[in-house]
Amino acid sequence: MYNQNDGTTPRAWPRNLTDQIKADNLLARQVPGTQLLFEMRIQSEDPSGELHTPSNTCVTVTATDPYAVAWAGVHWFSGTTKHDAWAVLDVISGLLMGAPIVQHPRGAKGGYHYSATCGGVLVAWGDIRSDVMVSIRGEVCEELGISGLVALSALTDLEPTIRLDVAWDAEALIPEMFAEAFEAGDVVTRIQRPVNPETGRLRGLERHSNHEGDTVDLGSRSSERFLRLYDRRGSCRVELELKKRRSVALWRRLVALHDEAAWGMEALAELRAFIDFRERSEGVHVDRCELLPWWAEFCAGASRRSTVIPRKSPTLERQEKWARRSVAATLALLVAVRGQAFLDELIVNGAARNASRPDRLALIAESRAGDEGRSAARITRDAWFEAARVRSAWLLGSEAAD
After folding, report:
1. How many CB atoms lie within 10 A of CB 153?
2. 100, 298 in Cβ contact below 8 A?
């Protein structure tokens, strides 16, 4: 480990790492709302002193144990925190049994000037960024386990604001089953399915094959939800990739539920809300169609429910940016053709509609309050200048009298 000053001086690390992790675990247990998830599983220490953390994505789904699918694993965790970067690295090193911290000469994408790794975890920070970025790839997520990730989140206020991958392993499935159902239309999904006129293939579906196995991608990587299926490790891995608000919302459900299995069912509900495979029949409403047998077995009775995503609060900056980007050109065209009266009518109608929007009324009130504050500041500034002028005149008058 290295210190925060120059990145080169070694720090002392406790000889008994198990005791240190236990101490960190006790501290983590004091965080409200996460007590049941901070079991670090260090009781599995063998006589050699090596600590074994169970893999959190090696969940095998079979017909004899359908509920095992509830034990979803995290296969990628990337987010930001406001904590000090070196404090975050210290916590990561402790959770990874004293893994060394290595600082790099370069930063990372996104405006981060500095970066370091600890046990495969990338931590980046920079002068122009007020936050610290932490990226944990799949292998390290498996090493930490769900409980380790939650402990890291609680101790550093880290949330997956960038990306969160939830994974299940299913021996009875293959990626092509998903692709064929998607092409056949036996699917209820938010994914757009237009036909590409150049290739004649459905958009939203991509197949990749190599010597390691087959991969099927459903959806767009740029969206907040994306599904990946591959069999490079033998059994079919079902991997739901979430980003930004959806990744944070689902992660908070894990912390609130205190139960990995219950959270796995929540993740399945999110997956089904994104894409659901059904035997669609003509004349029958899609909600009444039965699930495809293999999909029903995989879902193991999970409901279809999307995580509630809070609506972004509007700001004047966002509204102005949207108007300049999307409205300005059209508005200029309409005013040029219809005249200034059209713009005046548009503003009057818009003001009437804003009267029923509390969020926009709040923005108007906030703006007026800001104007009053600026007016008060201007009055104070003018009064100060007037006082300075009077004092200067008085001093000049006194010097003339002398």
Report:
1. 24
2. no
Give the pLDDT confidence of 281-333 residue by residue, as tens digits. 877 877 788 899 999 999 888 888 776 666 666 677 778 888 888 888 898 99
In a domain, 242, yes or no: yes
Instruction: Among 299, 326, 341, give the residue marking a domain's end.
Output: 299
Asked if 69 and 170 touch (Cβ cutoff 8 Å), the reply is: yes
Q: Looking at 274, 299, 324, which one is the last position of a domain?
A: 299
Query: Which secondary structure element, helix H or strand E, spans residue 265, and what is its range?
Result: helix 260-274
CA distance 320 to 70: 45
By the 10 Å C-beta count (0-12 exposed, 13-18 middle, 19+ buried), 329 is classed as exposed
> pLDDT tens digits, residue range 207-243?
998 888 999 999 988 889 999 999 987 789 999 999 9
Whole domain around residue 376: which residue ranges? 316-401
Amino acid identity, residue 76? W
Does this model's pTM top 0.70? My answer is no
Residue 44 CA neighbour count, 13 Å, CB half: 7
